[in-house]
Amino acid sequence: MSMRNLAVIGALAAGFVLLVFVPSFANGYQLSLAINIMNYTVLATAWTLFSGPTRYVSLATVAFFGIGAYTVAVLGEELAWPLVLLIAFALGFALSLIVGLSTLRLSGVYFVIFTFGLAELVRQLVTWYEVNITRTLGRYIFIDITHAQIYWQLLALAVIVFGSGWLIQRSKLGLALRVIGDDEAVARHVGINTTTAKVVLFAFSASFMTLAGAIMAPRWTYIDPAIAFNPVVSFQVLIMALLGGVHRLYGPVFGVIPLAMLFEILLARFPNHFSILVGIAFLLIVYAIPRGIVGLIEGAQLSLRRTKGAKA
Amino acid sequence: MSAALLSVSGLTRRFGGLVAVDQVTLEVRSGEIVGLLGPNGSGKTTVLNLISGALRADAGSILLRGRALEKLPAFRIAREGVARTFQLVRVLGSMTCKENVIAGLAFGAKSRWGREADLAAHELLVRVGLAARADVMTSELTYIDQKRLELARALAMQPELLLLDEWLAGLNPTELREGIALVRSLRAEGRTILMVEHVMDAIRSLCDRCYVMNAGKKIAEGTPKQVLADPEVIRAYLGDADA
């Protein structure tokens, strides 16, 4: 193993230990911000796992996130917590398989629209069920889980997401998805079962999102479909991933941290103009840094190396 | 003469009212280089698309060593041993040359991965003359190098049948000479090739046999010399003498 790899592993381990101890020195507000950042890190990285290499832009993030939250709202007080998480994961996986098999034949803008429609459909279905069958629109979640525990669970999930992403990138599946992202026709003609590859990864990505929703649910004591399936979440995840850069696994983190803070400030200062300001941020990002912050850094490094090379 | 590796019979494909491929029957024997000729729009590329599974045939059968291909999806046909290049060269733009070749190595019937794939990729890049460009992004390649790379990716699949769609088109005279030499060296390895081609020099010097198509139909078959002298073929390319 080279010195550089050792240094990277050391830095990652040190960073992880530091993150583990955040709840012991953060105050309530800071911890809540940390939970927010960790949640969006999981969501944006899980999103990038699938959408990064394949370039299939999904707006269904909140559909899976909300299903996780609702699993907890319905079963949270009945079953042991790990079992609830397991069920949430399984539900997310099952739904994403169905969605994947029926939609991943679509490409480009049709896929985007479908995923957005899917999130709305799930929200309407849950609303309909709650109004007509259970006759209540909202649900209370009383589960004995502290904010620090929520934070640690999200941190653990983030580690799992990064770990699986790292393994996938090194696997044949990872290469298959990059080939698909570049040219789907070529992918088929080199023997890639494009549908299976896309569906499998979409399902993993979606299950992680579902878990994030389940872990986050106890943070709200009250949820209703409008909260759990808020479409703004899907857009925020997308814009964070784009700002960070989707061609690297760690890219989204660089978008999550500044934007989570920005949204926090915007919500506190300009609650009535929040959507407009988020929209403007979205436009600026897409126009100014299409390859994201990581792409910007890499571009700068490359041109630096080139000028050095030219001088030498 | 060895038995047919590929036998196509009654192959038909319509696009709306147009019959792009009309009852085409052809055969490729093991170790042969067979040319598929014809004026623009005569259905040659459609035939390759049907064999490789990019398009589904409306009628007819396609057998590779007796196994039916006509109902299989493209990725299965690829794993059965059919590799192809594209009329408009298609390399994977976000990857290096080596990664492009590994894409061909990793998913076929004789899948190779890891160190084994790295070595094989290097060999293939040497084979097509791109060894020095292994870590270069494909977007930086010249046109001929992109074509070489596409060929390396197809060869990486160790295909029983290689489909070349105007692989020699658009090359300058020097490149063309290199290209012909490369294809000829594939024949020396015992590869079986079905190639759509317009470049007459290439057809004369490479092909054992040719089929000529016009308006979706097969109009001639035989050695290059025979078909190029066939009055019907001349009429297809140049029109009637009194026209």
Topology:
The complex is a heterodimer of chains A (312) and B (243).
Chain A: H1 3-20, H2 22-25, H3 28-54, H4 61-75, H5 81-103, H6 109-134, E1 139-140, H7 147-170, H8 172-182, H9 184-189, H10 194-216, E2 222-223, H11 225-228, H12 231-244, H13 251-269, H14 274-288, H15 292-311
Antiparallel strand pairs in A: 1-2
Helix pairs in contact in A: 3-7, 3-8, 3-10, 3-12, 3-13, 4-5, 4-6, 4-10, 5-10, 7-8, 7-10, 8-10, 12-13, 12-14, 12-15
Chain B: E1 4-15, E2 18-29, E3 33-37, H1 44-52, E4 59-64, E5 67-68, H2 74-80, E6 82-84, H3 97-106, H4 115-128, H5 143-156, E7 161-165, H6 173-188, E8 193-196, H7 200-206, E9 209-214, E10 217-222, H8 224-229, H9 231-238
Parallel strand pairs in B: 3-8, 3-9, 6-7, 7-8
Antiparallel strand pairs in B: 1-2, 1-4, 4-5, 9-10
Helix pairs in contact in B: 3-4, 3-5, 4-5
Task: Describe it.
The complex is a heterodimer of chains A (312) and B (243). With 312 residues, chain A is mostly helical. In chain A, 80% of the residues lie in helices and 1% in strands. In chain A, helix 3 (28-54) packs antiparallel against helix 10 (194-216) and helix 12 runs parallel beside helix 15. The radius of gyration of chain A is 20 Å and the shape is globular. In chain B, the strands form two sheets. Chain B has a six-stranded mixed β-sheet, sandwiched between helices. In chain B, a hairpin with a 2-residue loop joins strand 1 and strand 2. The model of chain B has no long low-confidence stretch (mean pLDDT 92). The interface between A and B is medium-sized, with 19 and 29 residues.
